[in-house]
Amino acid sequence: MMNRNRTLHFATLTLLATFSLACSATPVEEAEPTPAPEASEAEALTAAPATPMWFLDDGMAQPESAYLHAESGALFVSLIDGEPGGRDGNGHIARLTPEGEVVDAMWATGFNAPKGLRAHDGTLWVADLDEVIGIDIETAEVTSRIAVEGAEFLNDVATGPDGTVYVSDSNGLKIYAIADGEASVFAEGDVVEAPNGVLVDGDRLLVGSMRQAAAPDSAPGQLFALDLASGEKTVLSNEPIGTIDGIELDGQGGYILTNVMAGEVVHVSRAGDVRVIMNFGDSVAADHAYDSERGHVIVPHLFQSSLGAYDVSGLLD
């Protein structure tokens, strides 16, 4: 099972390296959302085509994660810029404004295949293959590198109010917790499914599964929560969703997700009702940011080497 997971996952990411070269100049029209083909009439209304509020395809080499840092007002984007599993040192992080202006395309450099981003107390944390790296937000200097022994494919990052960093290992079927510079296993095995997206919400860790990316004949991934103290699992979505990547709170007790391989933005209500609110057709939707002030989701189109902001302000009710 583990070998099969690894093979299929890297096959998917290898496709990225080839596909992105051909799509580096994707025009806005091709990245515009289109209605989900099997949506009901009511659902189709909310998933109707929308023009990006802004769109970048210049210098966005395989963007995997977007993160809006409230304290600084900066939008950080991790860019793989090379082989997805390679140790080439080409990976970097760009700093933008929430309006899509590139402040520094090479804000932090020297990474391999950087993915999930999240900050705590002035430090931006990034997952990079088998280590978690801390970057001082004020200076852009790397302040720590924490090797995670046994990690196979570190993916998304979350931070707790006490500074604990949680990181998903999508291939290793584990979630690690990092505290005081040391990594330990927070949860593993069947309970975490194939974890990708993670986000701390109060006293629980939200987790999005991407079981179908690991094994296409598996059930679609779901959104669930793990109690930070006990590890108890609670399923939050009333139905399976797919290959969940990004997770953000909608400010109304619900959740905004990306279904990466389906190219969808999905809303899960407080009651657990699942609704596709945006579909990007052939463009995937990786780990997004949510700008609650403007009502925008900022979506990395990983395979297309582009980044777009889309208005969902009227789609979350």
Radius of gyration: 18 Å
Strand order of the largest sheet: 1-24-23-22
Specify the structural class.
Answer: mainly beta
What is the CATH fold-level name? Neuraminidase
The end-to-end span amounts to 40 Å
Q: Identify the CATH homologous superfamily.
A: TolB, C-terminal domain
- What is the CATH domain class? Mainly Beta
The largest pleated sheet is described as: 4 strands, antiparallel
Oligomer: single chain
Description of the molecule:
With 317 residues, the protein is mainly beta. It has one domain: 6 Propeller (Neuraminidase), CATH 2.120.10.30. Helix content is 11%, strand content 44%. It contains 4 helices and 24 strands. The protein has helices at 2-22, 28-31, 41-46, 211-214, and strands at 54-56, 63-69, 74-79, 91-96, 102-111, 114-120, 123-128, 131-136, 142-147, 154-159, 165-169, 174-179, 182-188, 195-201, 204-209, 223-227, 233-235, 244-249, 255-259, 264-268, 274-279, 289-291, 296-301, 306-311. The chain has a 4-stranded antiparallel sheet, with no helix packed on it. A 4-stranded antiparallel sheet has the order 2-3-4-5, with no helix packed on it. A 4-stranded antiparallel sheet has the order 6-7-8-9, with no helix packed on it. Strand 16 and strand 17 form a beta hairpin. The longest helix has 21 residues, at 2-22. The chain is globular.
Give the structure's gist in a few sentences.
The protein is built from 4 helices and 24 strands. By secondary structure, the chain is mainly beta. It has one domain: Neuraminidase.
Keywords:
4-stranded antiparallel beta sheet, 4 helices, 11% helix, Neuraminidase, mainly beta, disordered N terminus, 317 residues, single chain
